[in-house]
Specification:
This protein is mostly helical. The protein is built from four helices and no strands. The protein is globular.
Length: about 70
């Protein structure tokens, strides 16, 4: 299971990422859920998709975050 790095950032930094990373709607939805500390498995259930789809979305989302760091 992937470690949730998002809550490790300050609130200001999380808001910055939300503004600057140009997330797709699905990435934004996952970002919001991960900020609420849902696991990837829980996110898959809440977003009505497979865990492999969530993993792909998560990788793209994290890549965009890393570009901002």
């Amino acid at each position: 299971m992937a470690r949730n790095i998002i809550p490790d950032f300050s609130r200001e930094k999380r808001e910055y990422f939300r503004r600057e990373c140009n997330f797709t709607p699905r990435e934004e939805q996952l970002y919001d859920l991960r900020n609420q500390e849902y696991s990837l498995e829980e996110c898959a259930e809440l977003m009505h998709c497979s865990e492999s789809t969530i993993n792909r979305i998560s990788k793209r989302m994290l890549r965009k975050i890393m570009e901002q760091i």
